[in-house]
Amino acid sequence: MVPGGHADLRAAGELLTVGRRHFVILNPAAGRGRGGGRLAAYRRLLEERLDDVTLAETTRAGEEGELAKRAVGEGYDVVVAVGGDGTGSHVAHEGVASGRQDVALGILPSGTGNDFGRNFGYDPRSPAEAVRVLAEGHTRSVDVGRVESPSASDHRPGTLEPRHFLNVVGFGFDIAVIDAAAKARFLKGELLYKITALQQLFRFDGFRLRVEPASGEAREAMQLMVTVSNGRYFGGGFPIAPGATVDDGLLHACRIGDASPFGRLRLFNWAEKGKHVRSERVEILGDTGFRLTFDAPPRFEVDGDVRRAAESTVELRVLPGALRVVAPPA
Quick check: 112 pLDDT over 60? Predict the structure, then answer.
């Protein structure tokens, strides 16, 4: 993992050395508690397949970052996130910020969306396969996004800081869905996102936004949602940026213009299959960075972590090849 993108570790792939040390962070709250059911299987498989493994379980929101910072500081070779996109994102953030180039992120999916892992073919229903990939130790270098503008997490409202991200940053409708999902008691997994999203299609007010790509012309319009993606997937499998890959050196901004409730419903149905790009209300911009200007400091999500910006302008950029991930060969 490399800070600020100053070095590009992009390569065809490499195998970690024998005798590597693994620090495994297990998040029992992932997937609204559903992830806890997989932890016993992961514990057993990890102890069977790995020679040197330390297990740590989170007890509160945001603790993943603290544990990852400890693991990186103590010289572990691989820091493994057992959870969803948020767990992996906290681990990656600490690793990239540390400046260590000899530490990798491991992924054992057990969350709600697991969208970043989809880029590598991970299936949360196959813990044995995920642990096999981890034990084999093949790594790939991938891009990381960075929200340069200071923001604070809802879990730590007094701490303003830039934030790295693995998968996506979302504004507008995306936040309305996350807020609604947090109040839903009986839904889990992909169904949770889809049902709450359908509700918000008829409730959410649009918002005005100016989007300035690093190397293109600015756009300003009323929007339903804007996502800035590193990977292809979002919201539990929606290919929101169908042409994106995690190693193309770009971020992909998807602008979805506001529409009537039934127009929104049509866009939602198309987005599930990646067909939303056909609509005249949708534009996807690929660039190395973006500046987004709102009427007021926005709330937004970073890999599921809800944050509030300190100012009305939010700047994002890509760090090419800044992260090593244990994954199947490309």
Answer: yes
